[in-house]
Amino acid sequence: METREFPAWLEVLLKEKFFNACLDHEEEKKNEKNILCIDCRLSICPHCLPSHTSHRLLRIRRYMYNDVLRVDDGSKLMDCSLIQPYKVNSSKVVFINERPHSQFRGSGNYCSTCDRSLQSPYLFCSLSCKISDVIIGQRGLSGFIRVCNSLNLTDDENGGVDMFLCQALACTAATDIVRKKRSSLTTTTCRIVTTAVSSADIEAPANFLNRRKNMPPQRAPLY
């Protein structure tokens, strides 16, 4: 049940597994659920948009295999200050949930909730870590949640996928193409060689017998 202290859409944002295939459009391409409908409190895919045209929509992106959102988008709904941002495709993003990290703690700046190493002056590594800290410190989210009556879907840069991951996938695809070409060339060459050898094997006994018929018999030398 939604309350002013903890809205239902925020719980979905923190707990939903985004980028799974949409069951309503499983036959369609690009059917990953990477959009959160704030009004319906559920994740949707791009093919679901016609049914949510007048709703507040938040696009979820991927960075380093984790869900992130743009600071500009998230700041319309929540106070995203003091969360360490990362730059992806010229936009600043923040992680939605805490990520696994080493338990080793040295000197420097750390997340106030999970002790993850951070750059100064940031205090939180993710949105969920800040929410936990705010709930404990203020016993509510009244100062954290912002009033947002309209939230349009922002353009998706490079499909919301990590730019470096795209480059890696492109390199992998190019390598596979080269491998396939080499494999095809090798197979063709092997077939040609095998055919030539097979033909020689078939003709060799006949040629050899004809040559033996026209040659005088050879005897072993006497010593």
Characterization of the model:
The protein has a domain of 130 residues. The strands form three sheets. The chain has a four-stranded antiparallel beta sheet. By secondary structure, it is of the alpha+beta class. 34% of the residues lie in helices and 13% in strands. A hairpin with a 6-residue loop joins β8 and β9. The protein is globular. About 24% of the residues have low confidence. The chain has four helices and nine strands, in the order αβββββαββββαα.
Q: Which strand order do you get reading across the main beta sheet? A: 4-5-7-6
- Low-confidence stretches at least 5 residues in length (pLDDT < 50)? 158-182, 185-213
The proportion of strand residues reads 5-15%
> Main sheet, how many strands, which sense, barrel?
4 strands, antiparallel
Summing up helix and strand content along with how strands pair, one would put the structural category as alpha+beta
| Average pLDDT figure | 77
Q: Helical region count?
A: 4
Number of strand segments: 9
Write the layout of secondary structure elements.
Blueprint lengths: L7 H8 L19 E3 L4 E3 L12 E3 L1 E3 L2 E5 H4 L11 E3 L2 E5 L13 E2 L6 E2 L8 H12 L24 H51 L10
Antiparallel strand pairs: 1-2, 1-3, 4-5, 5-7, 6-7, 8-9
GO molecular function: zinc ion binding
Pfam family, one: PLATZ
InterPro entries: PLATZ, Znf_B-box
